[in-house]
């Protein structure tokens, strides 16, 4: 939670059907009202205009509300040499969302899409216990007349006299669509030492919890509520069609028109990088492009907590397929190291260099490679593989684009149709 921050300047939404070979739709839920589940939501981030009314919670500019700029799924498009703003984020800020790491479908949750609506009435902590307004989530006591970005004031709490948290939504039937870009840890730890530094009670309970951004939250209810009851359901990111709630769903296409459902995107020690570059993919589609070197760096695509039973995207897989091209227009295929590993345990397989491989197909500047999983000589069971990495050698300067990264022949998790929200420049 509180680790993601991204925004959109000149966002172009492109609704493209899934095109990657071998993809299939997950089971859809019939009827408009199918598949709704009960949950709860808080918010993080927000405009300083609103947050500064709560200076007692923390220092500016976040005032203790955190920020949605740095997300645990990666996706931030910059090299940390400049300030990060929502212009570095590939999705609209109202769509960004963190899921609690105790939620049943937390494993492989990066990139999943949900439809969420507010549910008026009591807000429950755990089980049947109702939140007390003195627990710190309800905000009206500090600034009862604060308005949201639409100039609206708080609708009030019908059970305020009993000190119970009860919310009046703007419209219980109105919904928003969000995409998982971050996580809300139940237990907070120091990033360097691993020492426990605190807990996030809403993200520890037995009620499904989401942390929306301020801008998503305010579309459902006034931010002064602080915490609301919700109804939610997973949806296809492109069509918005409701899907069955299936925690095991991880796309076996890792990158199609975007980083696909289940996968985080983590560039490191790079010069430039783009989450998606329109027109740079196979046949003019989207691609993810990176420039690295001379320091060793690269791009890792990983499925968090996916080595456990029920997920395991590489279980039974025969090969890793991908398309690669030189970013600067050369017909020479970049010689990069391709590796597999276990993201959570930090265990790694041997790497394979594209320069030692023969392509199975050429299309324009692109070459397609199909690498048998056995070529990576993993020192642990294949079903424990949960990441793919592309990197340079120390001292090598290389710029390349990737598209259609796929796991071939896997039997582990389900597949979901590719979805695309295209944008960006190189």
Care to describe what's here?
The chain has helices at 48-51, 214-217; strands at 37-44, 96-100, 113-119, 121-122, 166-167, 175-184, 187-189, 196-199, 209-213, 227-235, 253-255, 264-268, 270-278, 286-292, 298-302, 319-326, 337-342, 347-348, 352-353, 361-363, 366-372, 387-391, 398-408. Helices cover 2% and strands 30% of the residues. It folds into two domains: 37-235, Barwin-like endoglucanases (Beta Barrel); 253-408, Galactose-binding lectin (Jelly Rolls, Sandwich), CATH 2.60.120.430. The strands form five sheets. Strands 11, 13, 14, 16, 20, 21 and 23 form a seven-stranded antiparallel beta sheet that branches. It has a six-stranded mixed beta barrel with strand order 1-9-2-6-3-10. Strands 12, 15, 17, 18, 19 and 22 form a six-stranded antiparallel beta sheet that branches. It has 426 residues and is mainly β. Residues 1-26 and 415-426 have low confidence and may be disordered. A hairpin with a 7-residue loop joins strand 13 and strand 14 (286-292).
């Amino acid at each position: 939670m509180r680790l993601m921050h991204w925004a959109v300047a000149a966002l172009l939404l492109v609704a493209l059907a899934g095109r990657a070979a071998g993809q299939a739709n997950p089971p859809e839920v019939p009827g408009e009202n199918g598949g709704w589940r009960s949950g709860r939501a808080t918010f993080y981030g927000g405009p300083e205009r609103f947050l500064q009314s709560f200076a007692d919670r923390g220092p500016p500019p976040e005032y203790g509300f955190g920020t949605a700029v740095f997300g645990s799924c990666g996706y931030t498009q910059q090299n940390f040499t400049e300030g990060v703003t929502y212009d570095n984020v590939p999705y609209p800020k109202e769509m960004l969302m963190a899921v609690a790491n105790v939620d049943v479908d937390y494993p492989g949750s990066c990139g999943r899409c949900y439809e969420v609506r507010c549910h008026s009435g009591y807000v429950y902590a755990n089980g049947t216990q109702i939140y007390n307004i003195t627990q710190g989530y309800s905000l009206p006591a500090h600034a009862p007349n604060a308005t949201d970005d639409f100039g609206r004031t708080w609708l009030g709490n019908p059970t305020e006299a009993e000190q119970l948290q009860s919310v009046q939504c703007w419209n219980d039937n109105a919904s928003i669509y969000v995409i998982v870009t971050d996580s809300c840890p139940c237990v907070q730890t120091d990033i360097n030492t691993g020492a426990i530094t605190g807990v996030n009670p809403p993200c520890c309970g037995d009620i499904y919890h989401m942390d929306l951004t301020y801008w998503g939250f305010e579309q459902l209810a006034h931010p002064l509520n602080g915490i609301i009851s919700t109804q939610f359901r997973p949806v296809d990111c492109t069509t918005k069609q409701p899907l069955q709630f299936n925690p095991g769903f991880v796309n076996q296409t890792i990158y199609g028109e975007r980083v696909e459902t289940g996968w985080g995107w983590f560039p490191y020690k790079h010069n430039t990088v783009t989450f998606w570059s329109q027109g740079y993919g196979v046949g003019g589609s989207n691609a993810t492009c990176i420039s690295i070197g001379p320091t060793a760096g690269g791009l890792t695509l990983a499925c968090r907590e996916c080595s456990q039973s029920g997920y395991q995207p590489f279980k039974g897989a025969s090969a890793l397929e991908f398309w690669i091209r030189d970013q600067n227009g050369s017909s020479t295929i970049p010689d990069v190291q391709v590796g597999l590993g276990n993201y959570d345990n930090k265990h790694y397989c041997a790497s394979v260099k594209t320069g030692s491989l023969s392509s199975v197909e050429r299309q324009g500047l692109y070459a397609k490679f199909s690498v048998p999983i056995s070529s990576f000589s993993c020192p642990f069971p294949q079903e424990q593989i949960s990441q793919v990495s592309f990197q340079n050698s120390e001292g090598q300067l290389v710029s390349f684009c990737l598209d259609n990264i796929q796991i071939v022949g896997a039997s582990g998790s389900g597949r979901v149709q590719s979805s695309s929200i295209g944008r960006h420049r190189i």
